[in-house]
Amino acid sequence: MSDTQNRCLLYNEEVIPYLEAWKWQKKLQGQRVQNPDLDDALILLEHPPVYTLGKAANSEFIKFDIDKNTYEVHRIERGGEVTYHCPGQLVGYPILNLARHRQDLHWYLRQLEEVIIRVLAVYKLQGKRIPSLTGVWLEGRKVAAIGIKVSRWITMHGFSFNVCPDMEGFERIVPCGIADKPVSSLSEWVPSITCAEVRVHVARCFAEVFGLKLIEQSLNNIHQR
């Protein structure tokens, strides 16, 4: 990569509780809203089992009683409907200043899809978009979901990529509110796949798509700023 490229701080983490990662995202975004000159950032991690709903999500897409359940559920400020996170699903939270890239949310969503499509191409698989829907599909099955929140052109939230998760948790919801298209994971096509392997490709493809130079960091550094 050229030294003239914008820097992006890469926080490559393991399994992090959802609310903890949400707090980190908001802190990183808030810092960049206050100081747009700060470097872009990308958090890659996995979550313990958790359901999240976008700010306008329809609770009818949840098949269990939210008030009488043992599952962790959070309504958050991203767009989109209900989704499920768990270990084996790689989640990416880009904190980007779109003023450096393009101030166009549709473009940004397509770029996030492009990252996943390029990762799938590493395995000689053809990821596809479906017009009017957001996400990435393989042979008609959704393998990556996307939901974002942008404040003063600084992004948060992002994408979740089903690499090798236990898919049972998806049976308790209508994922992303799409009842007629099943969800699946990369492991259906590449049985031995791991998130550790896919992380490397996601980071590289993200850097390529957005023209960024990745700088490894630790989330612990966030508390020191």
What does this molecule look like?
The protein is built from 3 helices and 10 strands. It has one domain (7-224): Bira Bifunctional Protein, Domain 2 (BirA Bifunctional Protein, domain 2), CATH 3.30.930.10. With 225 residues, the protein is of the alpha/beta class. A 7-stranded mixed β-sheet has the order 7-8-9-6-2-1-10. It has a 3-stranded mixed β-sheet with strand order 4-3-5, with no helix packed on it.
Strand content: 25-35%
Instruction: Give the full name of the CATH homologous superfamily.
Output: Bira Bifunctional Protein, Domain 2
In whole angstroms, the N-to-C terminal distance is 27 Å
User: Sheet bearing the most strands, described?
Assistant: 7 strands, mixed
What CATH calls the topology is BirA Bifunctional Protein, domain 2
Specify the overall morphology.
Answer: globular
The CATH architecture can be named as 2-Layer Sandwich
User: Uncertain runs with pLDDT below 50, 5 residues or more?
Assistant: none
Function: Catalyzes the transfer of endogenously produced octanoic acid from octanoyl-acyl-carrier-protein onto the lipoyl domains of lipoate-dependent enzymes. Lipoyl-ACP can also act as a substrate although octanoyl-ACP is likely to be the physiological substrate.
Keywords: Acyltransferase, Cytoplasm, Ligase, Transferase
Protein name: Octanoyltransferase
Enzyme class: transferase
